[in-house]
Design a protein that fits this description.
It is an enzyme of class 2 (transferase). By secondary structure, the protein is α/β, with parallel strands linked by helices. It has one domain (5-176): 3-Layer(aba) Sandwich (Rossmann fold). It is 38% helix and 16% strand. It contains 7 helices and 6 strands. The chain has helices at 17-27, 41-50, 55-60, 92-100, 106-116, 132-143, 162-176; strands at residues 5-11, 33-39, 64-67, 85-90, 121-125, 147-148. A 6-stranded parallel β-sheet has the order 3-2-1-4-5-6, with helices on both faces. The protein is globular, with a radius of gyration of 16 Å. The N and C termini lie far apart (51 Å).
Length: 193
């Protein structure tokens, strides 16, 4: 296996591209991490709508970039060893596909491979309100060991900007991937007096 930690990042068309961009930027700060990225067609559209980052700029931050249509890509095979996958943001369509084993694109196939190989899979669902189908699909995935980390802001660290909120979410995602980080303040707990 590669000496680098291989992380697959799937980006779907749900709102929240800023979370994916921030995560990939932070991952590039770790020279021992290799980012394998794939965007759905709607993820590319949301990237244009929601951020100032171009697709070309985002791809340059990845070590490897794959077309969502390329079901023959390395990350579509369990024999290609990875250390985990994160889907950020995760659309309800993608979550439903993964929960049902329906791999109609590379994001779904890579997630299916991650599950079958019993590797770490993290999803960042971006939808509200949630209906019973959404909840049942996420419950099914949680029972399979998928970690579900919706972008819910924390206020104990007194965020001052949207970037503070996004950074806090990225901290949680890096924690889930067992990547030590300290760019965000953490809850220190109360002290006895």
């Amino acid at each position: 296996m590669s000496e680098k930690k291989r992380i697959v990042v799937g980006i779907t068309g749900a709102s929240g591209s800023i979370y994916a961009v921030n995560l990939i930027k932070k991952l590039q700060e770790y020279p021992m991490i290799e980012v394998h990225g794939v965007l759905s067609p709607w993820a590319k559209e949301n990237l244009k709508l929601e951020t100032d980052t171009t697709l070309e700029e985002l791809v340059k931050l990845m070590d490897f970039y794959y077309s969502a249509k390329d079901l023959g890509a390395k990350i579509a095979s369990g024999s290609f060893l990875t250390d985990g996958m994160i889907i950020v943001p995760a659309s309800m369509k993608t979550i439903a596909g993964i929960a049902c084993g329906f791999s109609d694109n590379l994001i779904g196939r890579a997630a299916d491979v991650t599950l079958k190989e019993q590797r770490k899979l993290v999803i960042v669902p971006r939808e509200t309100p949630l209906n019973i189908i959404h909840l049942e699909n996420m419950t099914k995935l949680a029972k399979m060991g998928v970690q579900i980390i919706p972008p819910i802001p924390a206020f104990y660290n007194q965020p001052q900007t949207i970037q503070d909120l996004v950074d806090h979410q990225t901290m949680k995602l890096l924690d889930a991937l067992n990547i030590r980080n300290d760019f965000q303040s953490r809850w220190e707990g109360n002290t006895c007096q």
